[in-house]
Structures are given as C-alpha cells and as structure tokens.
C-alpha cells in the first residue's frame, strides 16, 4: 500500500519481500461474469498488505511480466458489479451483517445477510454487523448521497474482524470482536467515537494483540469520508486506513492514510495491474499539494509491489502532529476523473462535509490525484472494502527502524528508544504503545444519485 520514503533506498541491499501476484483482470470481463454468476473473487483481507507494504520507495526492477495467480483469495457475492455499492460474502469471515441505510450520523439497523467460509492461513474473522443511518438528509444541492454510515454506538456493526497473524510480518495477532471487546481493545468512548487499540501488556513473548476490520459492504466508485480524532503513533507502529478489491492487484488498492514510526506526513498510494500510471511526477502538472514519491508506474508487478505514491505536504497529516490538532477528515473520491485523496485538519473541515452534503468540486487542491488519463479508475479498480488496521514493526516500520530523513523522523527509532531492533522494543515495552490507537468519529460512503 505504500511507497517508502527515499531513505528506504538505502536499504535496497536487503532485497524486496517476496510477493505472489495475480493475473491481470479486465473490467468488462469482471462485470460480464458477475452479471452471469453473481460472484466475484475477493482476495484475502491480509494478502495485499503482505505485498504492497514492502520497501516502498525503492526503485524496483521493472519485471514486465503479468502478476502470478494467488490461490488463496476469497469468494463473495456481488449484488451489483456496476459503479455503486454492493454487499458480499467473504471466505475469510464468518459474519452476520446488516446493510446500512441511507443517512447521516444517527445509527439504525438494516436487513441482514450472512457469509461463511475459510481464507488464507492468516485465519478467520467473525462479526455481528449492522451499519447505521441518520435522520439528517443530505442537501439537495449535493449529488452525493450516503449509502453507508459507520458511527456512534453501532460503529463496529458492518465490519468483519480479521483474525490471525499479520501478513506483513508484523508482531501482532489480530483478534476477533468478542476477544477485542473483553480485552478493551475496542470500545465506544464517552464522545461516541470508536476506539481500536494495541495490547499494552508490559512484556510479551511473541506478538501483541491488535485489531483489523474490513467493511462487509463493498463499493465501486464513490466518495469515502473518514473523520479521525486520533491515530496510532510512535516507534514500531504502522497504522493504515485503506481499501482494496478482488484478485489483488487486479481489483486495485487505494491507501488513503498510512505511515510508520514517528512520521508526520501521510502517504497515499495506489497499486494496480500493469497499464496504470501517473501522467506526470510534477505536483503542479497533477494539480496536487503532495509530492510524488518513487516512480509514476503504479503496476505492482512492474515496481516490486511499490505502486505509485504521494506524500502529503502537511506536517500535521499523520501521527502525533495529527493527534495534536484533534485530527481531521480524509476523503477519497473515485469517479470518472480519476482517484483523489483530500486531507482537512480539524479547524478547516468544509461545511458541506459536516452537513452530510459533500461538494468535492469546491474543496480545492487534493493532496493526491491519479488522473483517469493515465489510469482508468473503473478498469483498474472495482468492488472495494474499506479497512482499518494497526501492526507493529512489520516490513516497513522494521525496515526503517534505524533510518532518518522522512518528515517527523529527525532521529531514528533506534536512537530514540536506545533499542537496536524493532522486535525487541515491541516485545518489552508495552507502555510505549499507549498512543497506538485509532479514535474514529465516523466513516461514510457516498454515491451519486
């Protein structure tokens, strides 16, 4: 999901993590097949992270070959393959999930669908799910209407809890919903915000418990808005809010929020099949406020899985600096023009967002933008689920443990902690992860009417 900072180039001698890739799909084929069979293949929720997160800013060799098939994807039903919202059953989960009704901040339950199955060796997931609705109606002036709203006391309804080890080699074990609740790793606080924590037991022998959740409902195209008050931060942490589609990388991956350790600038990245690229590496040409990191080729198979990423210019868009301003809002817009990511600090969230009537055309310059001219957003992306997770160490945070040079990381974590390696620090310093938590006000998915 991400491109590492240029400093990761220094680590090139260590090599890239091996990843298994998928053969290229085509939107027309996917839609035709779905209409005929009402099924699509959705990859295991953990697989993409294993591939996408390896040494991002390295300039990988151009392999030119198509991704190899991955045999551990999960199958789910798709109600509608066309741009819009779809519900699905995943083989990595055992869940009872209710669809969210249209609306804003106040939650209510919807009708239920059930999915069962088994997934990749990473494990299974369980949830009892229903997404919320609101009594507030979007303004008539906005073409965007809420189709999913996760907020308040029912925030965790409508999410599948991924269970098992971290595919990106992090020192965490993802746990199911009942275990997370009993361990106080998930909760709704007095402000009505969802909390997702990492275990802070002083010492652990191997891994710390953590939480990873994936929306049961899927979408093709749309507007995803996430309001967070706090995100995990500190040496050894690697949080992300992202989305991906079936048959990675054929269904595409969009990393909306991501970084490691003490970074202060968010990085957004996409990963695709061959044929998708940024039309320029120039921020002014792309019309973005961020900076392209790595190359312009977004194909996972041809970039050593790094994709093409953009680092935010705002030094309060990630980590401790983000938390210090009481967070803010991230928005990802996926339409015929391409894919855009916006960041709004708490003090400058557009009023149309708070009114549940978003007008993206008035939001100004996006942090990141992948134009349709270089990457057709409905050829290289489809049927996405939104995902939150927090891992510790892993390929990225561990890989840059001794490095500096990225905004926020003036001193390396090895220097700051006095511990030579990430794993030793994580296993023996539980109190250091008191700030390794998400506090989320809401996640909303919009579609045009």
Automatic annotation (TrEMBL):
InterPro entries, per the entry: Beta-glucanase-like, ConA-like_dom_sf, Glycosyl_Hydrlase_16
Keyword terms of this UniProt record: Glycosidase, Hydrolase, Signal
GO biological process terms, semicolon-separated: glucan catabolic process
Molecular function in Gene Ontology: hydrolase activity, hydrolyzing O-glycosyl compounds
Renumbered residue ranges of the record's region Disordered: 96-142
Alphabetized CDD domains for the sequence: GH16_fungal_Lam16A_glucanase (cd02181)
The organism's place on the tree of life at top rank: Eukaryota
Chain ranges of the GH16 domain: 142-405
Coiled-coil stretches: none
Span of the signal peptide: 1-19
Gene3D superfamilies: 2.60.120.200
Keyword Signal among record annotations: yes
Pfam families in UniProt: GH16_XgeA
Record-stated family: Belongs to the glycosyl hydrolase 16 family.
Protein name as it appears in the record: Glycoside hydrolase family 16 protein
Species in which this protein is naturally found: Phanerochaete sordida
